[in-house]
Amino acid sequence: MSDNSRMDAFRACVGGFAFGGDYNPEQWDRSVWDEDVALMRRAGVNLVTLGVFAWASLEPEPGRFTFDWMDEVIDLLHANGVSVDLATPTAAPPVWLTDGHPEVHPVMEDGETFGFGNRLHFDPTSPRYREHAARITTALAERYAHHPAVVMWHISNEYGPVPYTPQSAIAFRAWLRRRYGTLAALNDAWYTRFWSQVYTSWDQVNPPEIPRSWSNPTRRLDYKRFVSDALLECFVMERDIVRAHRDDVPILTNFMRFYRHADYWRWAAEEDAAALDIYPDPGHADSHVSAALNFDLMRSLRGEPWLLMEQAASGVSQWRVNNVKRPGQLRLGSYQAIAHGADSVLFFQWRAGRGGHERFHSAMLPHSGTASRTWREVEALGRELPAIAEAVGTVSHAEIAVLFDWNAWWGLTETHGLPRNDFDYPAVVTDHYRPLLQAHHAVDMVNFASDLSGYRVVVVPNAYLVDDRFVEELTRFVHGGGTLVCSFFSGVVDADNQVRQPAYPGAFRELVGCYVDEYWPAREGETFDVAFADGTTTRADFWQDSIHPETATVLASYTSGLLAGRPAVLDNAVGAGRVRYVGTRLAPEALRDLLVAAVADAGVTPLVAGAPPHVEVARRHSPDGPHAYLFLLNHSETETARVAVPADGLDLLAGAPTGGTVALGPLGVAVVRTG
Q1: pLDDT of the residue at 624
Q2: Is residue 158 annotated as a catalytic residue, yes or no?
Q3: Active-site entry in 26, 103, 158, 358
Q4: Alpha carbon 308 to chain centroid distance?
């Protein structure tokens, strides 16, 4: 059965947007379960994730399974119309496993053991861990695969441990043999002649533990790739066990916001849907921008709807200060995920826990119960979501793409030895994404393997490392009429982290129409004045390329500093397309104006006209049907906004025609059906 068929079957079983969250009945007395299910029905819950951290409750001793309580819970949920996303509990091995087999523990980069008492305390390369994970997964699949309540499988949880153990060294060598074939090829890729690092035996190759000073950058890069693949092997192992027992339900795991240890482009291809856990900080006014980027990334990973697997109902417990969500933010954030392609609104967790680290983490049902503000907002959202059920399964289309690739990330921030070593890749990408979001454009995220032919504009932020395939695809894109906006320190090294010859920026020299003879990181506090050809001026900081134009024309030049009079921003005609190259870090307003102008010049129009930047706009549409759904989200806590929409619009939440204009109160939401 295909991935899409499994997700179609899931949507049909749930009947609308999935609404609910993690449920941990093993943490509560049996007397609480009936109340839980009654309140779930009251709130409109139709899906719960069950068993995520229940390994010790399901297998209290090696090979002895206690499934009676799980049987009762699943039957109770099913009898009350609540479907189950059944998890394998392998993210939190029980103490009998880690105490009996200490080699299961991961060793961290600094040589310290990651001990028992948290979660993710396992080495994904450990044969013993994999053996026991396979056993509990098999037992669960044999017992519950065909239970009518189980409509989805959730493999483990938030994969993440990075091991530096003898067994991870063995697995790393095997991975390198598959990648390079021969030691000669590895030595060449890692440039081991530098500092006399040449390997003469595979047994000499180890994980890049923390050295006294620095270590080989390509060795570090390959270890990031290896760890992502090793974690993925654990997922695939458990997935295949479940699938062998039943093939018609979706199987997935939950991704995390900007998680650097797993290449989610590779992972998404192995799952039936992308799913995300995300906790935007209510104390940061700009956190919805990062959230929107992550939502667009999830949608782009497979080019289809995805699942919001976890969010907080209010405050969390992991930060120094854990602010609550203001009244209305729970609703607003939930609709924001749906606007960007989510087919679910799920929370961690259903009932707030009495103890443990997350005892003050908010829940759908707080400690104060149904008398709480949070419960009232949860209940109201559950009643409201069916009004937009027709939008489930709808898709999105964008003409603008922004590069977000884990290899680019790892190369820029994980391997050291660069002109400056304080890049923040997610922040860099967000800085390029924000102006497009606030100008009400639809945006996809792409990686090195993406097909760019469907886009008009591609934005490449600080892609220091790029592979040859992406260079060829980007070159075809521009020659064919596309617009590229590329920022500094891009195209510098190849997939082996070796500097492309003969001059910077080696991969993109033809595209940007210049060469760079030297990279000039800014000194602390240093800024540069920049003047554009049209007379506008701005400031820049952080970085300067020493640019020598070849075929490009100069759009802006420095007017202060040692590079005064030299180019800062270029425009280059390539084939039927154009490239704008930014050789410094422009002030946010100047970067915004440059990006918005490039998009407009490429013929891309916003989803709506005239809306203020604090109103977010997204659109989903039926793959084959006549309808589109325009989502309008007001992120201001104080201002009302009026937004022009198509005259034939119907506001599904208000249940009334729009008349061509929608008024959004503070933190207000509208979902307008058109067509």
Answers
A1: 85
A2: yes
A3: 158
A4: 11
